[in-house]
Design brief:
Blueprint: H1 2-13, H2 21-27, E1 32-36, E2 39-42, E3 47-50, H3 53-56, H4 65-77, H5 90-102, E4 109-113, H6 116-133, E5 141-145, E6 176-179, H7 193-211, E7 216-221, H8 237-248, E8 251-255, H9 269-272, E9 279-282, E10 294-298, H10 300-310, H11 325-358, E11 366-372, E12 375-383, E13 388-389, H12 396-406, E14 409-410, E15 412-413, E16 418-421, H13 429-447, H14 450-456
Parallel strand pairs: 3-14, 5-6, 5-7, 7-8, 8-9
Antiparallel strand pairs: 1-2, 2-3, 4-10, 9-10, 11-12, 12-13, 12-16, 15-16
Helix pairs in contact: 4-11, 5-11, 6-10, 7-8, 11-13, 12-13
Bound molecules: pyridoxal-5'-phosphate.
Pyridoxal-5'-phosphate is lined by residues 115-117, 120, 149-151, 222, 226-227, 255, 257-258, 283, 294.
Length: 457
């Protein structure tokens, strides 16, 4: 009774992100009601292993009382403090310092946002301001990667390169350019790591040449492209692109909204990639999804150029909830949990996850298995030699998600038949094993889908 009324209220009133509105009205919502560790429970009492950590954000896992306590304590003491007018709160200041201490190189200045999209949007504003301050305002062209995702804000979504974020929204803008992804499984230059790196470097050089070398402001890349299908570049790719940006005198923005906070092993994937970007964006794992927060980390030279350029004038960029004390208190506790065992557990669980997914490679539908740490994907094909994707008629995003759900597993099913995994770092061996066995069952069921079978025959 209660569940029916909730479903009707949702249908009538709640607009869901990145959804077919009419499709959702037909299907109705699935309501989650509680969670603990890596397990979520829906309104009917069904328990599932959350192989996607919410939206690749609940890195710490669910049900940490110490996080709840940190939030409650902060709410009791000081639920809000603006960071405007030279004011501040202790947790936000401490968090900025803790992040600066752990981030690679001289990323010493932290601007807090509410999530990843506004972190990306903030970088665009900061980069424009930086170039004005530097006397190079003509550097107003931005480059990102095909299959990249940089959020859903009005401007940032134009750096995103996924068609549904553009269609009907009047973006990308003409100052937002793309170069091909490294996408090793489907790269026209083949799978040789050096050939892929060389092709990406050449593509960036050519794009800069085409736009005009004195016009380009920045290049954006995720250490692993998440929403584009968990595309893992060859080792050395980020470093090669970072070095090239130095050479071309353009800023390098590493978007670590997914890869940050243990997702690939270390706190920041950039550390493993051995690079120091000019900007680093984070969100999601920063607070493990318990409350909203993102951040832009800025290098010394960027911060100083902006600060000197502005002089006594205010830099006109700000949000009411920037540096929110409750979010900061949560982030500090989450950071403590990462460093007192969760990162280590995540690395161990990540090895088990990758080994388990590799064992699925013999399945008739599995074309590629890729990942790093607790971020992985299985790409399904109906012909391994030709790498033919699953047909749209088999509706992979919906049917595979549904099958996995019925098998007690939440995974990400992309429309092109890629399955994405980003489980909480707290996963036990049993959680990881459940992810693997439930995936195999889901794949076997997909093999029996009439729209897939007909093509295999
Ligand atoms: C790499 C990357 N950047 C930015 C964003 C946007 O973050 P948010 O959804 O918190 O606005 C995301 C979200 O998935 C992301 O994966």
């Amino acid at each position: 009774m209660l569940s029916n009324s909730i479903i009707e209220l949702d249908r009538a009133h709640l607009v869901h992100p990145v959804a077919s509105y009419r499709g959702h009205e037909k299907l109705g919502v699935r309501v989650l009601s509680s969670a603990s560790g890596a397990t979520v429970t829906d309104m009917s009492g069904r328990q599932l292993v959350d192989g996607f950590a919410g939206l690749w954000c609940v890195n710490a896992g669910y049900g940490h009382h110490s996080i709840v306590e940190a939030a409650a304590r902060q709410m009791r003491e000081l639920p809000y403090a603006t960071a405007y007018f030279g004011l501040g709160s202790e947790p936000a200041i401490r968090l900025a310092a803790e992040l600066a201490e752990r981030a690679p190189g001289d990323l010493n200045h932290v601007y807090f946002t509410l999530g990843g999209s506004d972190a990306i949007d903030s970088t665009i504003r900061f980069i424009r301001y930086y170039n004005h301050a530097r006397g190079t305002p003509e550097r107003d062209q931005f480059i990102s990667l095909e299959q990249g995702y940089h959020g859903s804000s009005t401007v940032g979504a134009g750096l995103t390169a996924l068609p549904i974020f553009h269609a009907g929204f009047g973006i990308p803008f003409d100052w937002q350019h793309k170069i091909p992804s490294h996408y090793a499984y489907r790269n026209p230059v083949g799978t040789d790591p050096q050939a892929i790196i060389d092709a990406s470097k050449q593509a960036l050089r050519s794009k800069v040449e085409e736009i005009g070398p004195e016009r380009v402001a920045a290049f954006y890349a995720e250490p692993i492209q998440g929403s584009g299908g968990v595309l893992v570049p060859p080792p050395g790719w980020m470093k090669a692109m970072r070095d090239l940006c130095h050479e071309l005198d353009i800023l390098f923005v590493a978007d670590e909204v997914i890869t940050g906070f243990g997702r690939t092993g270390p706190l920041f994937a950039c550390s493993e990639d051995d690079i120091v970007p000019d900007f680093l964006t984070v969100a999601k794992g920063l607070t493990s999804g318990y409350v909203p927060m993102g951040a832009v980390l800025m290098s010394d030279h960027v911060y100083n150029t902006i600060a000197d350029g502005a002089g006594a004038a205010a830099v006109g960029h700000g949000y009411t909830y920037s540096a929110h004390p409750v979010s900061a208190a949560v982030a500090l506790e989450v950071l403590h949990l990462y460093e007192s065992g969760l990162l280590e557990n995540g690395r161990r669980a990540g090895r088990r996850l990758m080994a388990g997914l590799q064992e699925l490679a013999d399945h008739p539908l599995v074309g590629d298995v890729r990942g790093r740490g607790m971020l992985a994907a299985v790409e399904l094909v109906i012909d391994k030699t030709a790498k033919t994707p699953l047909p749209a008629a088999a509706d992979p995003a919906r049917r595979i998600f549904d099958r996995a759900w019925d098998n007690g597993l939440v995974l990400r099913a992309f429309g092109n038949g890629v399955l994405g995994y980003a489980p909480p770092l707290c996963c036990t061996d049993a959680d990881i094993d459940a992810i693997i066995t439930r995936t195999r069952k889901t794949l076997d069921q997909t093999l029996e889908d009439p729209d897939v079978r007909v093509l295999l025959a």
